[in-house]
Amino acid sequence: MVNEKDKPVVLVIENSIDTTGAFKAILNYAIYARASYEFIFVLPRKSSLIQRVKKERFRVETLPFLEIRKHPIHIFLYLPLLIMNAIRLKRLVHRYQVNLVHVNDFYNLVAVVVKMLGGHFALLTHVRFMPDRFPWLLVKIWISLNLKYSERIICVSEAVRKCLKDHPKIHVIYDGLSNTISKRVKSKKDDGLIKLLYLAHYIPGKGQDFALQAFFKAYQQNPKLRLRFVGGDMGKKKNQLYKEYLKTQSIVLEIEQVVTFAGPATNIEHEFAKADIALNFSESESFSFTCLEALLNAVPLVASDSGGPSELFEAGKSGVLVSNRNVDEMTNAILYLTKDNNLRKTYAQEGFQYVSHKFAKSNTLEVLKEAYNQILP
User: Fold this and answer.
1) Distance between CA 204 and CA 68 in Å, rounded?
2) Which residues contact 349 (CB under 8 A, 6 or more apart)?
3) 177: closest CA among 285, 266, 268?
4) What is the overall mean pLDDT for the chain?
5) Are 368 and 186 in contact (CB under 8 A)?
6) ∠ at Cα 19 (305, 297), nearest 5°?
7) Distance between CA 54 and CA 56 in Å, rounded?
8) If pLDDT is split at 50, 70 and 90, which confidence band does 2 have?
9) Partners of 321 in the beta sheet?
């Protein structure tokens, strides 16, 4: 197949089956850079994101990617499915005359195997997970193979890079937003309530349980507080059970009347516009696109020191940073921001200004474009 637009062809391999920060970041970049490159997405066959990508007028191919799980069946199928997907991917590379393959997380080795099989293309690999979330032996294998076969490895934060070895191929490039940054106008009604927003999928480890405990303690001192959870369960049983656990805990704590459990956000800006404070108490975050969006929407942010979030703002000035898994610090941070509306406005303004500069296109998206151009054959 000839590239009719005469632009380098980039094949994006994205393992997500539902909306994640990693997916939003790569789709955002593709939209931004589409004038320079022809993007083709390769998604899992059962991904709910297929129509989302097609809506943005990108070509989509699918492969039966397998998530990494400890289940015996997944372990048994991993290697044969990896080889089978590599063979199929090699055909796609040939069909579309692909110049560059961009793997959106380092644990998917399908492009590495294609290069082992003689594939000729530039390979850029993103590291979007905190490597210490996985067994070190697995991480060592993944990184060693990617260092050998990738032209460039991109870490989304310094926190991620510090988990890896020093190497000339490894660089840090922050995620950015392609739309013009403009401070959002708050639409919240002055009803005397102080509304906390927790925007994240219901996944064990994402910190909603800590938020619930901290909110309970803070609510005892300030009954004007309200907490709203917004997110999906990605169709996974363990996530559905986690959400039910959270709901049960709210009943046990007798705060079910002041805590809302909503589904996936259909309009993120609308959610932020109604919020006074955004919370993120995830136990492990390589970057946190949600935190970035909160700051860009001028919402005061309280986040746990779990990796990347600490690089998104200046603690004590443009955001409040609390120790990971420390409910008392989370409670105190909530009470600190709820005591003074002017204080919240100051944090909102400082947070917005900080990310507007640090994560501007020239420091993020343009740097990734430069990395593309440096490794393209």
Assistant:
1) 16
2) 298
3) 268
4) 93
5) no
6) 60
7) 5
8) very low
9) 303
